[in-house]
Structure formats: C-alpha cells, structure tokens
From TrEMBL:
The lineage of its organism: Eukaryota, Metazoa, Ecdysozoa, Arthropoda, Chelicerata. The keyword Nucleotide-binding applies. GO terms for cellular component: proteasome complex. It comes from Nephila pilipes. InterPro entries: 26S_Proteasome_ATPase, ATPase_AAA_core, P-loop_NTPase. This is 26S proteasome regulatory subunit 6B. Residues 1-29 form the ATPase AAA-type core domain. GO terms for molecular function: ATP binding; ATP hydrolysis activity. Pfam families: AAA. Keywords: ATP-binding, Nucleotide-binding, Proteasome.
Amino acid sequence: VIMATNRADTLDPALLRPGRLDRKIEFPLPDRRQKRLIFSTITTSMNLSDEVDLEDYVARPDRISGADINAICQE
C-alpha cells in the first residue's frame, strides 16, 4: 500500500502502528535551486515570450510544490 498526504499530522494513529506503514518517505517542498530546475524542465518545450522571466517566479518566497509549479506553467 502506498499512501500520500499533505497533512500527515491528521492521519489516524491506528494507521501508523508498527506493521501497518513500515516506511515513511518525505518529499519536502523544493528550495530555490530545485524550483529553478523544475521550472526549466517544465518549460523547455514551451514557446515562452521574451517578457517571461522564470527567475521572477523562482525568487518568490512562496512555498510551492512541483505540482504548483506545473500548474503555474500551464496557465
């Protein structure tokens, strides 16, 4: 069983007992370098206007996920 959540603190403690979920893997939100790489990877095949400066998005203090970045790029 593989589970995903953005709110691990709200999981029922019964799910977390030994033998139920044996391995916990966390993926923290991307740092500035990782955001730059994600934006670059997603937009590589896009025909962006010269007015678009991805660094403006990378420099924002927003705590955004890779999925958030993908959504921004699709707008």
